[in-house]
Predict the structure.
Amino acid sequence: MTSKVSSPTEQADEAVVGVQRKPPGAKDVRRLDRVIIRFAGDSGDGMQLTGDRFTSETASFGNDLSTLPNFPAEIRAPAGTLPGVSSFQLHFADHDILTPGDAPNVLVAMNPAALKANIADVPRGAEIIVNTDEFTKRAMQKVGYATNPLEDGSLDGYNVHPVPLTTMTVEALKEFELSRKEAERSKNMFALGLLSWMYHRPTEGTEKFLRTKFAKKPAIAAANLAAFRAGWNFGETTEDFAVSYEVAPASKAFPTGTYRNISGNLALSYGLIAASRQADLPLYLGSYPITPASDILHELSKHKNFGVRTFQAEDEIAGIGAALGAAFGGSLAVTTTSGPGVALKSETIGLAVSLELPLLVIDIQRGGPSTGLPTKTEQADLLQAMYGRNGEAPVPVVAPRTPADCFDAAMEAARIALAYRTPVLLLSDGYLANGSEPWRIPETDELPDLRVQFAQGPNHTLDDGTEVFWPYKRDPGTLARPWAVPGTPGLEHRIGGIEKQDGSGNISYDPANHDFMVRTRQAKIDGIDVPDLDVDDPTADTENAADTLVLGWGSTYGPITAAVRRLRTAGEHIAQAHLRHLNPFPRNLGAVLKRYDKVVIPEMNLGQLATLVRAKYLVDAHSYNQVNGMPFKAEQLATALKEAIDG
């Protein structure tokens, strides 16, 4: 779904929050600047599809948005149980936003398990829409409700809307030749229709989507359309919903351009394709399916028309082995995985360091250790990315900060890999991978030129005058070795995992040569050209200059920035900086850190970046850590940062 956004000066002022009175008989419309909605139900209730469709219509309407899908760890947990609850949270606004929101203003609970699993996050006064049909005695007992929460007064502090979603859906579909079970599956579309009415979402895109998705099953398509429209009509006619809500487009939040809603994994996929086109190289993905990285394999497999080749290997080791072979053969080679897969790929990453071939290793981090929490997010693979190989095997590390930024991070990782002939680790995570936000589609002339020059002939002259090809004769600027495509006449050379002799690439066990090669490979990584670190500090060079710096990396960008905004609005002076390049660090990082008395590093681990910063710069950086499988909340961070400022 794409939409055109004009420049801010061409747009009308944003809507004022208030109530718009309608003609007699019509319902009131309340204008809001932002809303956070959470859909929750069994993993089989279609909550991810419902949230995705609501998000797509919100994107086409022009709101800024941020999403947080939350999946059960089990493939199919028992129905009606707490471990089986699936949810989708969407934050949309008429202004620039950065997170999926701390707490929902609206909770749609499809059963007792969904209500119990999410009620602790819902603030008093919020709207709760409950599917009353599922609140049977057995269903409530299954999740530990001794009494019916809809009747015992425990929800008196909320605006509860009891709606028999299942019954009303079945009634709306009685004209169709469907069993009751088949009809009940459309209750998520009834809920989507109701919420679409409540928040004035467009409907054309969802109706087109349903016709396309069920094109081969026209009866199912018609039933879902009927359920969707029934939900809309219910909102319009029932007296239980006396007010609907409007959130104006975020006309001032975006530069001029064409936008679409995009998830992190999709942005990464597009970034890889764009990088291969800009490099004029075929793209090869060698991968083994693993949550939450599998969507990249799924997406890239659709783009053979762009010269993309995808190989679903039998295991993680085979996946990276095939990718490294493709790199040797002259492709832009990629392997995708999560933390457990990085562990299995570590020996081959070391081989890529030794061979000095370009290879992108994309790690979509999840909770660990071991197989851990497949569907939950974490940032705990940083030290693994830095040091998780035998011997001295340095690799560049790049981390995107938002779902849309995954596109640019993929381009940057490809630039480094190709220019410096090295494997590069890109650290995304489950939050970025599955979350989404608006993305401005770049023009092709805005993309970097990534073309490389393959070796074409001999590059060294021996003492006797013979011209030969030396595979480890380096570019003096980048220390990158030449890239020779197999089969090129005259470029035959030895390759393998044993230490090479400088220049010739012959096998060498000489201690001095090994010392030289180890230091040379490290110097190549240290010398990678990365931009200086930008610091957001409005009070710099003023009498009230901030003495506290918040330093982050990866997906903590949104919560950190939202927390910093809250503190500045409250009159606090605080600076912020965010790292994309984690190896090598920006050259000015040390100077930046020394400008501040206090440095706070929030991470979704137990302090891995803080450990690196303390060791390298001898700065007493303070960690603020969380490892509960969920992203930080802005209010939580704001409280912690205020304590740091005052401490």
Remarks:
- The first strand starts at residue 2 and ends at 5.
- Residues 358 and 421 are 5 Å apart (CA to CA).
